[in-house]
Write a structure and sequence with these properties.
heterotrimer, A alpha/beta, B mainly alpha, C alpha/beta, A: alpha/beta, four-stranded antiparallel beta sheet, 12 strands, 31% helix, 23% strand, C: alpha/beta, eight-stranded mixed beta sheet, 11 helices, globular, AAA+_ATPase (chain A), ABC_Ni/Peptide_Import (chain A), ATP hydrolysis activity (chain A), membrane (chain A), ABC transporter ATP-binding protein (chain A)
Chain lengths: 329, 322, 329
């Protein structure tokens, strides 16, 4: 397939994920559009209920709830994935686009060794023999920095430490050299010192394999560490996106500002009180009309009753009416 | 590990034997001599019987005597049918029970897996609901009733119709003598015995499959690009097997030990259950003692097998012990 | 230093795994091994460490939810190490605990009003008499105002609240009997960042108003820095460093503290990033801790002496105590 020079690896347009319920159709992801360029790390940030994990599952075609309705377009290398027959989708999954999950303990089948599980994926997408697939598993584990990979390959998930399990999970995801890796909170369940190891590994992956990575997290610190570009989600929508340095230096949306301010600083003066955002993120069932952040926003005014589009501000896109008015959030 | 298991087994069986012995010998008003001597026996006869069977000796001597004849010399004889050796009669009954049980077990495992998988895959649809209702019906029908109805249809009412004319008369045909006859004689008992377990196991498997499908590792398996068939068999079914197999082991043990009693009686199969039933009716203590020992052996043994299977199926169990 | 409110002296908690009959015999897990610690009246002592370091076990030993294997616990100057349930009962009102997951510690079938007033109904009031209805209602209203719960929510059930609100209920419950000390075990860890800030502020406000002392257990270092006046760092069952929070964060004496701090990804643009020290390998098993200094297997500064001689916690200047043979200046 011919590829335009500036064609992104992944282009998501107007993605909506809704669930049929007693209270009608609930929109969990609402007209979401974003792109991922080859070799870039896009961080998707949001709190619980922001729809960030659901978005990643949608890209993988892994939403299997019979009550879910998915509309919009997900193009990978120019090829539409929405509505692709299962058989075709299966060839993309695991081979071209791979995913790692938050909790590798529950995300790996407990009754098989990690080597078996990695080999299973390798064999699903290649003609390698059992023996070759196993050898590949050993190589991958070694590459992920696991000591004694030839021994570890025969261990079960529950025998490994959290960090080692996540390495095995990443080895499995990378076993077919995917061009796009989706990582859903891969370090949330880990201790900080182990998180540092895994973040270093992710950076190394991008450097060595040139893979694009969609890194989903709730931790702004991790975003600051690893991302090229950032997309901030709130209540199923993008509220702000842009290159990392810009977004951290001059956050445009009051929610982004609030999110950054809520984190206690690790150095410098301690605030007497943390500038917390009042209230809690809304669940899909009771999202407000107009700007979804409106009820928690200190800058709310009349024009917030209409859901604002994404306005351009420098290299950032911000979904807030304050932007065109020139006011600073 | 194995030695400990064996020790446990001996301990449990000894406990059961003492308990059974006490129930039949030491319960006030349950004088075994009176039962054996008959209803209107004179005191002289009663005394003779009592002496003959050793009932005039202390309880523990009686117990040891019984155990010795059961396990050491193996020449324990029935109280009621004097001269009938207990151990050979059990050995004769075992193949009947095993034939009935193994056939039924093959049937119920195969059918319940099919039902459980189909229901789990079609969850929420008419098919699922219909299968589950059928399963419930199967669980609710008592074995003796199903057996009697089956007999009524195949043995009397419609025996002469072309459909059931192949059904032989009630009773057991040894496999070694006539394999076809063995099969014919047992098909209906198999189905009868299996119905309950098909319903039970189908429902259990459906529930554990549905649970497995909610697990994160199923999502991972799909994310790996595996086919649905492989996700089902190698991931969902494989992890559900632990519950299924442990249930099966326990049920199988209980059934070998005499749980097939009702089916055996309805179909006139002279298995261990049948033997136990007759012995209980006549308070034939040596036979009861022997069948109870035999039953407890299988229950305890199947428990041990389940534990081993459990470890074989689940590395978390296996490695925790190592 | 003022007299300690809560004090641990050489405290140990060992768990025995496996019975006499299990292969290899019973194994002893030294979850807490010889910890000495004092919490002064009115201060907040932060207790940090990675998962499995024994910080939660230590917290539970200190409020005597666990029996202690060795050493002593003193509360308000009184030795409570070996007090039985009955003797502890009169102390319980003053020694409370707030857990991580409020939804699992709140009975889902009870209304908020009942949940909060339960301690008032169970424990007698001053002078040993039972409290009257009116007294309980007044106290309930006070408590709800104190933790920021709306009075009209009195009759709701826990599931009708968000995570942050449920944590407020848990805090109100702990406050009901006017405790002098609250042990907060990962009390803000499960919350969204924006909500977490609110609860941190609440803890700090309550301290200002009521003069409560906290032992604040958390794995999140920035949270601990914000809330605590002093900090203790645990590694593999032992306290490796204690000190004034600012000093400890600014100039850690123990190499583990240093590595831990450097591993935290920093979100704030203005904060200078520390030189990242990525520790090698995993935390050793507490079933089989290494000899000598427990950190020597991962320590970048480890020397021969560290492998043999376990370092004692000693004064290293500026109010810092560190268990290291070669502490940083």
């Amino acid at each position: 397939m011919p590829e335009a020079a500036d064609e992104p690896l992944l282009r998501v347009e107007d993605l909506c994920v809704s669930f049929r319920s007693e209270r009608g159709l609930l929109r969990a992801v609402d007209r979401l559009s974003f792109t991922v360029a080859p070799g870039e790390i896009l961080a998707v940030v949001g709190e619980s209920g922001s729809g960030k994990s659901l978005t990643s599952l949608a890209v993988m075609g892994l939403i299997d709830d019979p009550n879910a309705v998915l509309t919009g377009s997900i193009r990978y290398r120019g090829r539409e994935l929405v509505g692709l027959p299962r058989r075709e989708l299966r060839k993309v999954r695991g081979d071209e686009i791979a995913m790692i999950f938050q909790d590798p303990m529950s995300a790996m089948t407990p009754v098989y060794t990690i080597g078996w599980q990695i080999a299973e994926q390798v064999q699903a997408h290649s003609r390698l023999t059992r023996r070759q697939a196993r050898a590949r598993a050993v190589d991958l584990l070694g590459e992920m920095g696991m000591p004694n990979p030839a021994i570890q390959v025969d261990r079960y998930p529950h025998q490994l430490s959290g960090g080692m399990r996540q390495r095995a999970m990443i080895a499995m995801a990378l076993s077919c050299n995917p061009s796009l890796l989706i990582a859903d909170e891969p370090t949330t369940a880990l201790d900080v010192t182990v998180q540092a190891q895994i973040l270093r590994l992710v950076e190394q992956l991008r450097r060595d394999h040139g893979s694009s990575i969609v890194f989903i997290t709730h931790d702004m610190g991790v975003v600051a560490e690893i991302a090229d570009r950032v997309m901030v989600m709130y209540a199923g929508k993008v509220v702000e996106r842009g290159p990392k340095p810009d977004l951290f230096a001059t956050p445009g949306h009051p929610y982004t500002v609030g999110l950054l301010d809520s984190i206690p600083p690790m150095a410098g003066a301690k605030p007497r009180r943390l500038p917390a955002i009042p209230g809690a993120p809304p669940s899909p069932a009771d999202r407000p009309d107009g700007c979804p952040f409106g009820p928690r926003c200190a800058h709310r005014h009349d024009s917030c009753r209409v859901d604002p589009p994404l306005y351009r501000r420098g290299r950032q896109d911000v979904s807030c009416t304050l932007v065109p008015e020139g006011a600073d959030a | 590990m194995l030695l400990r298991r064996l020790g446990e087994m001996v301990f449990v069986m000894a406990g059961i034997s003492v308990l059974v012995f006490l129930i039949f010998f030491a319960t006030p008003g349950a004088d075994p001599a009176a039962r054996i001597a008959g209803r209107n026996a004179s005191p002289d006869v009663l005394a003779a019987v009592r002496h003959d069977f050793g009932f005039d000796q202390p309880l523990w001597v009686q117990y040891l005597l019984l155990m010795k004849r059961l396990f050491v010399t193996g020449d324990l004889t029935s109280f009621v049918n004097r001269g009938q050796k207990v151990i050979p009669s059990i050995l004769q009954a075992v193949p009947v029970t095993l034939s009935l049980l193994i056939g039924a077990a093959v049937l119920w495992v195969a059918v319940s897996v099919a039902i459980g998988v189909t229901a789990a895959l079609t969850r929420g649809t008419i098919v699922d609901r219909a299968l589950m209702i059928l399963g419930l019906v199967g669980v609710s029908m008592p074995v003796f009733w199903v057996g009697e109805v089956a007999n009524l249809i195949t043995q009397s009412r419609y025996h002469d119709s072309w459909f059931f004319s192949w059904v032989p008369a009630l009773g057991y045909v040894p496999l070694t003598q006539d394999p076809v006859g063995w099969f014919k004689a047992l098909v209906i008992p198999w189905v009868t015995l299996a119905i309950l377990y098909i319903g039970l196991y189908g429902r259990v498997l459906r529930a554990s499959l549905i649970e497995a499908y909610h697990e994160d590792f199923i999502r991972t398996a799909r994310a790996k690009g595996l086919g649905e068939g492989r996700v089902l068999v190698r991931h969902a079914l494989r992890t559900s097997l632990v519950t299924f197999v442990s249930l099966f082991g326990l049920d199988f043990g209980a059934l070998v030990g005499g749980g097939t009693l009702l089916t055996e009686i309805v179909f006139g199969l002279q298995g261990v259950g049948f033997l136990t039933f007759n012995a209980l009716q006549n308070l034939d203590l040596p036979v009861i003692m022997a069948t109870v020992m035999y039953a407890s052996f299988f229950v305890v043994a199947s428990n041990a097998v389940v534990d081993l299977l459990y470890a074989a199926l689940d590395p978390r169990v296996r490695l925790a012990r190592a | 230093m003022t007299a300690a409110l809560l004090e641990a002296e050489n405290l140990s908690k060992h768990f025995t795994l496996g019975g006499r009959f299990s292969p290899g015999g019973p194994q002893v897990l030294r979850a807490v091994d010889g910890v000495s610690l004092a919490v002064a009246r009115g201060e907040t002592l932060g207790l940090v460490g990675e998962s499995g370091c024994g910080k939660s076990t230590l917290g539970r030993c200190l409020v005597r939810l666990y029996d202690v294997s060795g050493g002593a616990v003193r509360f308000e100057g009184r030795d409570i190490t070996h007090l039985g349930e009955g003797a502890l009962r009169p102390l319980r009102p003053r020694l409370q605990m707030v857990f991580q997951d409020p939804s699992s510690s709140l009975n889902p079938r009870r209304r908020v009003a009942d949940l909060i007033t339960e301690p008032l109904r169970v424990h007698p009031g001053p002078g040993g008499r039972a409290r009257g209805r009116g007294e309980i209602r007044d106290r309930l209203h006070d408590l709800m105002d104190l933790v920021g719960l709306a009075r009209e929510h009195l009759d709701r059930y826990p599931h009708e609240f968000s995570g942050g609100q449920r944590q407020r209920i848990g805090i109100a419950r702990a406050l009901a009997l006017e405790p002098s000390l609250i042990v907060a075990d990962e009390s803000v860890s499960a919350l969204d960042v924006s909500v977490q800030a609110q609860i941190i502020n609440l803890f700090m406000d309550l301290q200002d108003r009521l003069g409560i002392t906290y032992l604040f257990i958390a794995h999140d270092l920035s949270v601990v820095r914000q809330i605590s006046t002093r900090t203790a760092v645990m590694y593999l069952g032992s306290v490796v460093e204690t000190g004034d929070t600012e000093t400890l964060f600014h100039r850690p004496a123990h190499p583990y503290t240093e590595a831990l701090l450097s591993a935290v990804p920093v979100a704030h643009a203005g904060e200078a990033r520390r030189r990242r020290i990525v520790l090698k390998g995993d935390v050793p098993s507490p079933l089989n801790p290494p000899p000598g200094c427990r950190f020597h297997t991962r320590c970048p500064k480890a020397q021969e002496r560290c492998r043999i001689e376990p370092p004692a916690l000693r004064d290293v200047g500026d109010g810092r105590m560190a268990a290291c043979h070669f502490p940083n200046e």
